[in-house]
């Protein structure tokens, strides 16, 4: 009964057309470097005032889902990651593009985004209240360990020497120290500059490290900048069928982990993607291929970050707790439309909640055809000659960086990090750990300091709460495992 | 990106280009993204003759952003020019407020000023004070509150106060904003009004009150002194117990929650407010026209309904009264910050 009422609410021409239009809008905004999914949702809010509740929510949810996938387009084609979450697999996706497999990479990101999002939504439908109760048990102690595990991934994600990975991580962590928004409330490394008080804008730094650095490299080594092969964009979906059969475990593991991490309001899609990528590499049969253009990490991390986006609705719907800025916006819209988030919404207005669930599922389905069109169009970008493409990339870097801070400050940050990224790559220092440091540095500091204040400086408090203790032991084991293994190996050698 | 795609396609297939820009256009128009008819029906020389910028010093998706955007939407209809919202975030509001104050005083830049303007100059973060702005109107105020976890052993504010008084300093922990943030000052102001030393309760910095509330429910801290509206979903879910509202009267949304004065006889009151401001030095006729438009927007049913449904407090103060209120809060917060050693 409730389900058919809900279907009646969703399957109207108005709702479907709204979803397609806002999907195209989200796809367009997400594909523009520097324009984010948050921006897409915030722009839609004033328009939704004049809509019925279901189309209003449908518009926002669809636009957000599309924009998050579309962020992968410039990541794979131009090495400009749209979100920190897609930075985890930018290197692999871009290298696949360079070897003429752009359609394969983007197809994988599209299909596994949709699958991850759908599986996450199913978990949301089945287990939202129970999972939300678990999420409420997480305080700064638990988040601290989660962040530590995320940072440990830096060592696993990057190919090559772990010393160089650490160095890169430190670059990111240092940059994350800048600004005023730290637990002590003291300006650090701002040199009296008002813009610096806001800290290093993450997306600007990311665009610089990846994309601007690539442009600089093309200038310095024009001979090395071989033109990417023209990709074969036929059978985008057929190829993914093969990936599903080949990596079913990765797909399910990524979706499950993504949903759980996404449901924690203090974690989210960024950590989910990185941890999934690291797990994928750790348990892969071919870990040496990661970072060289291997699709396996894309499958797992791609499912994971979209599952996390679905998971973020769990605390948002059950307790009105936003996990990220998109859910924060939608919670506001839910209040305006009289669908106050809270346990009661499941009892009082079940048909509206089920309509919402159907909208989530439909949004992931609509992603497939819209994404297909975007890939077909986007892949043509690669046939543009290098000497035209590079200036255009630089231009979009500048526009994107400006759009993030709404000031020229963002452009300077982007250029500075472009130089840093160029220097790092010349020394064969991987870039991904620096991004991870930038994303997780502030979270690490915040959770550590607040935990210490709460525990009056008692370090053992990190193991006193049950969930924190389990996570803590896992994290410590993560670090000690290579050491123990080395000792065991030496012992074995000594005996032999 | 589209520009580049179009360029790549344009070489051989015009049809595709048309299809793509078609999609973009449909999306943009369907969403109302395109600016309205430029200067519809206005005489050319009359202000405003081009789009107006509305600077919001806080991030997209927050409460101030929501207020800024709904205002922009209504002003756009009344003034016949697009009003674009620009988020200038960071540095606890310093970046955005500075951008508003330093803008060209021609009426084409306005902004949302928040109570942090009364705090940051005391902290020595900036020279900027409310005197660098002309206030067009105060459009919202949310009283501070006092909330504990539903399974807390203290069920009213007086019992909590007595427990704080009789415990070792630092036994109790509170959270809800960053160190020295507005809700931290709310707590300190309350403690001072009860004659309790400011170091009695340890402040645990958090990113906003929702983060503080979740931490409290998870057992991390004892109390959160933020506005009750921010805890609404958790209060309705019986996870959080509201103890008091730092206002003159009980709040419409929470009729069962006593005012702080009813609960503990303390006379401490604090509301966080949002004002629509312009930089100092606007031509008088332009400022008068904008002030009138802001008042009309405040009174519009769209704004009134929006605020009620979001659970935001409605309060209107005209330019003079608003300036007086802002100056008053500036003095009170300054006193608290000096006492707590947060002022420089």
From TrEMBL, chain A:
InterPro entries attached to this UniProt entry: DUF112_TM (IPR002823)
Pfam families: TctA
Record keywords, A-Z: Membrane, Transmembrane, Transmembrane helix
Domain (DUF112) ranges: 17-436
Transmembrane region(s): 24-50, 56-78, 105-131, 143-159, 196-220, 255-279, 312-336, 352-372, 392-415, 427-444, 467-488
PANTHER family the UniProt entry points to: TRICARBOXYLIC TRANSPORT PROTEIN
The name this protein goes by in its record: C4-dicarboxylate ABC transporter permease
Species assigned in the record: Paracoccus alkanivorans
């Amino acid at each position: 009964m409730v389900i058919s009422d809900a279907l009646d609410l969703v399957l109207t021409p108005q709702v479907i057309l709204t979803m397609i239009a806002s999907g195209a809008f989200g796809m367009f905004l997400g594909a523009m470097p520097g324009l984010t999914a948050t921006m897409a949702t915030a722009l839609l809010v004033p328009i939704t005032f004049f809509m019925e509740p279901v189309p209003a929510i449908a518009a926002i949810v669809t636009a957000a889902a599309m924009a998050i996938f579309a962020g992968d387009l410039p990541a794979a084609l131009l090495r400009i990651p749209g979100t920190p979450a897609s930075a985890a697999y930018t290197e692999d996706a871009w290298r696949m593009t360079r070897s003429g497999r752009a359609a394969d990479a983007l197809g994988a990101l599209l299909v596994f985004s949709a699958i991850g999002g759908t599986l996450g939504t199913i978990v949301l439908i089945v287990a939202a209240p129970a999972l939300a109760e678990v999420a409420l048990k997480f305080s700064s102690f638990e988040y601290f360990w989660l962040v530590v595990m995320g940072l440990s991934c830096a060592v696993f994600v990057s190919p090559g020497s772990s010393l160089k990975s650490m160095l890169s991580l430190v670059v990111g962590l240092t940059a994350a120290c800048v600004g005023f928004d730290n637990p002590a409330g003291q300006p650090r490394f701002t040199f009296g500059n008002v813009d610096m008080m806001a800290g290093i804008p993450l997306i600007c730094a990311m665009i610089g490290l990846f994309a601007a650095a690539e442009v600089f490299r093309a200038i310095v080594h024009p001979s090395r900048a071989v033109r990417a092969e023209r990709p074969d964009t036929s059978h985008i979906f057929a190829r993914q069928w093969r990936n599903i059969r080949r990596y079913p475990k990765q797909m399910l593991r990524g979706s499950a982990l993504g949903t759980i991490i996404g449901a924690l309001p203090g974690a989210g899609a960024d950590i989910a993607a990185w941890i999934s990528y690291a797990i994928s590499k750790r348990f892969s049969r071919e870990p040496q291929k990661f970072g060289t253009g291997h699709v396996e990490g894309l499958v797992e991390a791609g499912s994971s970050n979209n599952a996390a986006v679905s998971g973020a609705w769990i605390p948002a719907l059950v307790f009105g707790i936003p996990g990220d800025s998109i859910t924060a916006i939608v919670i506001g819209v839910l209040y305006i439309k009289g669908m106050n988030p809270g346990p009661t919404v499941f009892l009082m207005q079940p048909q509206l909640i089920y309509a919402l669930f159907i909208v989530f599922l439909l949004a992931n389905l609509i992603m497939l055809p819209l994404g297909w069109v975007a890939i077909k169009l986007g892949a043509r970008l690669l046939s543009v000659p290098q000497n035209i493409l590079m200036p255009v990339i630089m231009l979009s870097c500048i526009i994107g960086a400006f759009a993030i801070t709404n000031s020229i400050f963002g452009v300077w940050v982007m250029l500075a990090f472009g130089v840093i990224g160029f220097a790092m790559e010349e020394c064969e220092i991987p870039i991904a750990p620096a991004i991870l440091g930038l994303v997780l540095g502030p979270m690490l500091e915040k959770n550590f300091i607040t935990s210490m204040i709460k525990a009056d400086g008692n370090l053992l408090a990190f193991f006193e709460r049950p969930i924190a203790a389990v996570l803590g032991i896992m994290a410590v084991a993560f670090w000690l495992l290579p050491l123990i293994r080395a000792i065991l190996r030496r012992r074995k050698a000594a005996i032999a | 990106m589209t520009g580049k795609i179009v360029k790549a396609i344009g070489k051989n297939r015009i049809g595709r280009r048309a299809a793509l820009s078609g999609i973009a256009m449909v999306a943009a128009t369907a969403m109302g993204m395109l600016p309205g008819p430029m200067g519809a029906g206005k005489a050319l020389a009359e202000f405003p003759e081009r789009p107006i910028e509305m600077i919001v010093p806080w991030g997209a998706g927050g409460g101030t952003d929501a207020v800024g955007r709904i205002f922009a939407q209504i002003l756009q209809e009344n003034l016949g020019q697009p009003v674009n919202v620009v988020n200038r975030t960071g540095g606890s509001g310093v970046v955005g407020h500075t951008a508003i104050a330093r803008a060209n005083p021609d009426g084409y830049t306005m902004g949302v000023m928040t109570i942090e303007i009364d705090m940051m100059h005391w902290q020595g973060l900036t020279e900027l004070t409310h005197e660098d702005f002309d206030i067009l109107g105060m459009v919202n105020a949310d009283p501070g509150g006092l909330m504990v976890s539903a399974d807390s052993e203290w069920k009213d504010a007086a019992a909590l106060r007595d427990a704080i008084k009789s415990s070792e300093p630092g036994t109790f922990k509170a959270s809800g904003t960053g160190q020295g943030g507005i809700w931290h000052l709310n707590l300190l102001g309350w403690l001072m009004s009860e004659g309790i030393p400011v170091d009695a309760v340890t402040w645990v910095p958090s990113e906003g009150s929702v983060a503080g509330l979740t931490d409290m429910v998870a057992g991390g801290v004892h109390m959160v002194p933020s506005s009750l509206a921010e805890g609404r979903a958790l209060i309705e879910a019986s996870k959080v117990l509201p103890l008091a509202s730092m206002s003159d009267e009980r709040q419409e949304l929470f009729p069962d929650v006593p005012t702080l004065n009813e609960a503990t006889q303390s006379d401490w009151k604090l509301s966080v407010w949002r004002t629509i401001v312009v930089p100092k030095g606007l031509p008088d006729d332009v400022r008068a026209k904008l002030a009138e438009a802001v008042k009309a927007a405040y009174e519009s049913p769209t704004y009134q309904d929006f605020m009620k449904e979001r659970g935001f407090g409605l309060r209107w103060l005209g330019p003079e009264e608003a300036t007086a209120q802002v100056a008053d809060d500036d003095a009170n917060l300054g006193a608290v910050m000096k006492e707590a050693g947060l002022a420089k």
